[in-house]
Amino acid sequence: MDLTFSKDEVEFRDELREWLAENSPGEEPRGDEDAIFAFRTGWQRSLYDSGWAAVHWPQEYGGRDATLMESAIFFEEMGRAGAPLPANVLGLLLAGPTIMAWGTPGQKDRYLTPILSAEEIWCQGFSEPEAGSDLAAVKTRAVRDGDDWIVTGQKVWTSGAQYSKWCMLVARTDPEASKHKGLSYFLMDMEQDAVQVRPLVQITGEAEFNELFIEEARIPHENMLGEEGNGWIVALTTLMNERSGLGFFLQVRLRQLLDKLVAEAVANGSIGDPVISQSLGDMLERTETLRLTAYRGLSTIMKYGQPGPEGSLTKWLWSETNQMMTQLAVDIVGPNALHKDNPWAYELLRARGNSIEGGTTEILKNIIAERVMGLPRK
Amino acid sequence: MEFDFTEDQHEIKRTAKDLLAKRSTAERVRFAAEAATYEESLWNELVELGWPGVAISEDYGGGGLGVLELATLLEESGYALANSPLLATAACGLALQEAGSDAQKSEWLPKLASGEATGSFGIDTQIFPDAAEADVIVVVAVDGSSISLVDNPRAVAVEVETIDPTRRYGAVGLGEGTDPMPGDASAALALGAVLTSAELVGVCARALEMTVDYVKDRKQFGRPVGSFQAVQHRCAQMLLHTEGARSVTYYAAWAADADRTLLAEASALAKSSASKAGVEVTGSAIQAHGGIGFTWEADVHWFYKRAQLDAAYLGGTKTHRARLTEIAAAASGSS
Fold first, then answer.
1. How far is A11 from chain B (nearest CA, A)?
2. Alpha-carbon distance B283 to B292, whole Å?
């Protein structure tokens, strides 16, 4: 057991820190979605120009062949430096690795570089109004028409759709086949009239997400990723990628917020209140448990090639802790924390989504019970 | 970074698990608890294998391995709920090694390492594990300001009965024969907390395993109760507690060996988390077993009782959470 970074890992981190010190992205604009997107595009270009856009990608595709541990370090350092996520985060984390795993040589050639450079932004068209946690229930239909597929349906929770050139789309190509087997995975061009994007305003007042209305959109057959009817398996590749990497970014951000809260409690004296002290201790315990469990999970995957029981726990622990901590902030800061412009007010509201996005806590618990502990399904 | 045991450490842990699966079966645990006694033969075997002295320096006849190796043994000992003075003797040994004078160490460490003597460790006025039969006791003052050695425990320690019959406990009254130790009481306490956390991780892992087996098997309404989401989610919560406590406990044991600057915080983290996990997981185990879980006849209560005593020993969740906040507040002020 060695919980220090290896020489290579330290070198990787120091090189990144040095680069970050010289290439600070500056303060992200607030409130204005377009300005935020432009800022994040600029940030990704800057990363791309210096070879930092996708450290976890193989070198042949423009990455650095980073190990999982280095990739975790990358996200920790980004979080620590207060850097924003790159504009094309879904392309870098989800679309790219899925195309690498399932794409033809032609597809890899066509799509990977513009993902890295943020020239082409990607969004994820999985969830539907009637297919949330029950993802395999998607109803969006794709019907073959010569060399094309004609797609009709509705998608929801598609973040960044208004800026996207491409969509990772899961649609039903065989309504007769069983639920999981009738699906196929497409790379859909968003720049067509048949695809309408409507912003979905969330409880924070922002619109991070959208609804997609797809009315007889055309997708050339060559834009299918993987075989026809294999969409569920391809989608699982995307979903597996969803849970890694970012966790380290979020985990560091959580710790930074907690450090701010401790400083606030010291400054206003509430730290002397034993109830507040206990609650902060709980948050410190959870935050450290999250960090260490995430690293333990990573070590298990690197050493044994598959996740251990701890791997399924971090997203749940993170979302629960972020909700508890932002609620505690209201106790420590007082009602002023709820002033519309107070950063804690935003964090409090945004945290409500954490236990829903990327798999609800209830679904995660089901998965843990059934797949990790082997409890019987109904 | 490699957050996993080395092959040797895995081997130590596996060997311990296999041995205790044979020697500390549920029947033996029950027999010892109901008779309020220990099985000499089990302790003798552990002594022969060098368990009590595993982390004592070779200079004093110990195994010269780390706190991490010792922690794996304690985890397995907790998992099997083995009846022996292992935790008490090991914690006493580490406290002596940490804070004792050369003379104190020369006198006692070889005896503790060889099993010729057993020890105990604790905080003045609180309950000490295996104190009444111990040959030497290390006592930390209530305010943590000093640490001392009692070498005539039979004169000052009396057996007390607790809710946990799987272990013997004593009360220690300081008096004549108390010999001050020159070292750092807080480091000794931190090491004891790490060892106790390791035992709690084992207790949790076993209670969870028993529960999962039970709810897979037990049928109501024509199906296994483990197929009901309410029960499944309880089990998932038990896993989160157990694995979280495991992460931080291994980290603290590693810090004890590899980076002492982290030990104060890491040990508070481990004991805070493991104490919470122990109480929650074993309580949940009783609940998931239903009515049978509340009976003397089922074995889950032994784990609940041990977890309660271990959770309170050397400070529970609240004590250690307050410590975590103190440490964070101090860092906040200085940065």
1. 13
2. 13
Could you say which of A242, A285, A347, A370 is catalytic? A242
B267 closest CA partner among B283, B282, B251, B278: B251
Q: For B61-109, how does the pLDDT look when each residue is reduced to its tens digit (9 = 90+)?
A: 999 999 999 999 999 999 999 999 999 999 999 999 999 999 999 999 9
How many Å apart are CA A81 and CA A64, to the nearest integer?
20
| CB distance A232 to A226 below 8 Å | no
Please name the member of B1, B235, B273 whose beta carbon is closest to the beta carbon of A285.
B273
> How does the average pLDDT of chain A come out, rounded?
94
> B62 by DSSP, 3-state: which?
coil
CA pair distance A145, A286, nearest whole angstrom: 54
Query: Rounded to the nearest 10 degrees, how much is the dihedral formed by the CA atoms of A269, A275, A277, A278?
Result: -170
Give the pTM. Answer: 0.95
| Distance (Å) from the alpha carbon of B56 to chain A's nearest alpha carbon | 19
Non-local CB neighbours of B324 within 8 Å, separated by 6+ positions: A280, A281, A284, A285, B265, B268, B269, B272
Q: Which helix (H) or strand (E) holds B179?
A: strand B178-180
Tell me which residues of chain B, numbers 100 to 119, contact chain A at a CB-CB cutoff of 8 Å: none
| β-bridge mates for residue A213, sequence order | A154, A196
Q: By CA distance, what is A262's nearest residue in B?
A: B329
pLDDT tens, residue by residue, A194-232: 999 999 999 999 888 999 999 999 999 999 999 999 999
Among this protein's residues, is A222 annotated catalytic?
A: no
Under 8 Å CB-to-CB from B310, ≥6 apart: which residues?
A: B78, B196, B199, B200, B203, B274, B275, B278
- Among B9, B233, B328, the residue with its CB nearest the CB of A262 is B328
Q: How far apart are CA A103 and CA A101, in angstroms?
A: 6
Q: Which of A141, A91, A93 is nearest to A118 (CA)?
A: A91
Q: Does A289 contact B223 at a Cβ distance shorter than 8 Å?
A: no
Mutant choice from A6, A70, A373 vs B, greatest count of B C-beta within 10 A: A373
Interface pTM (ipTM) of the complex?
0.97
Q: How far is A322 from chain B (nearest CA, A)?
A: 16
Contact B212 A374 (CB under 8 A): yes
